[in-house]
Amino acid sequence: MFPKKKPVFKRVLLKLTGESLQGEKGYGIDSKSVTSIAKQLKEINELGVDVAVVIGGGNIFRGISGKENHNIDRCTADYMGMLATVINGLALQDSLEKLGVTTRVQTAIQMQKLAEPYIRRRAIRHLEKGRVVIFVAGIGSPYFTTDTTAALRAIEIDADVILKATKVDGIYTRDPHRCKKAKKLQSITYMDFLNKGLEAIDATAVSLCMKNNIPIIVFNLLRKGNIKRVITGEKIGTIIK
Q1: 238: helix, coil or strand?
Q2: Are 189 and 196 within 8 A, CB to CB?
Q3: Contacts 24+ apart (CB under 8 A), 178-186
Q4: Inter-residue contact 185 to 158 (CB < 8 Å)
Q5: Is residue 168 a contact partner of residue 176, using CB atoms and an 8 Å limit?
Q6: Which of 35, 55, 61, 137 has its CA at a distance of 20 to 30 angstroms from the CA of residue 23?
Q7: Rg (CA), the chain
């Protein structure tokens, strides 16, 4: 038998989009998709890796689109989007705990009957005890994306890396769905990413990571087992460092 691969990271922050929970439905929450993600998180949790998750809400409501398509005030739309992330976080928690993984949901907007308030020291203590911590409601303020939330929380909990799970297998020079000549980048510096105006991750999030020297790995979540592959050091996706 081949020896099991060991993780190369001790503490990670996984950034999930809300769309990753919707499966092929195109909206809402698909139980198969949530269960698939939960099983992958259980795998890396069992390797002894501290796992924190920031989850988006785009499968239910996105603040920017709410302003553009429904003429809702931007602040109100962003708060609605934050509430959508809470729904997604609770769905992921439920799926993880059905698999026997102890979790905690921490919210930037207090709602005592649903989740713990975000407290940095408490979050770190949960991670040290092997619990998966799910951060919801963004940072609790409008005009900030969940990418920026992921960067901020990663800094606060002293994560080794941010894993940005997407529908594509990395960062390309152009949109690969629109341009056949788009080339995949194996790695890119923070400054090059910002200077080229690439949109795989929010620029504010990349700036925060650059100032605090936290690498970001962008990879394809749709291929099962990819989270574990990244954790154990396989060269997949694109790294920003």
Answers
A1: strand
A2: no
A3: 184/238, 185/238, 186/235, 186/238, 186/239
A4: no
A5: yes
A6: 137
A7: 17
Q: What is the rounded distance in angstroms from the CA atom of residue 164 to the CA atom of residue 53?
A: 10
Nearest-angstrom CA–CA distance, 34 and 93: 10
Query: So where are the chain's domains?
Result: 11-240
Q: For the whole prediction, is pTM greater than 0.85?
A: yes
Position 127 pLDDT exceeds 90: yes
18's tokens? 């809300």
What's the topology of domain 11-240? Carbamate kinase (3.40.1160)
Output the CA–CA distances (angstroms, integers) from residue 109 to 86, 106, 173, 218, in the order listed.
Answer: 9, 9, 37, 28
Alpha carbon 188 to its chain centroid, in Å, reads 20
Q: Which residue has the tokens 């005030």?
A: 73
Average pLDDT over residues 126-154: 97
Residue 69 reports pLDDT greater than 80: no
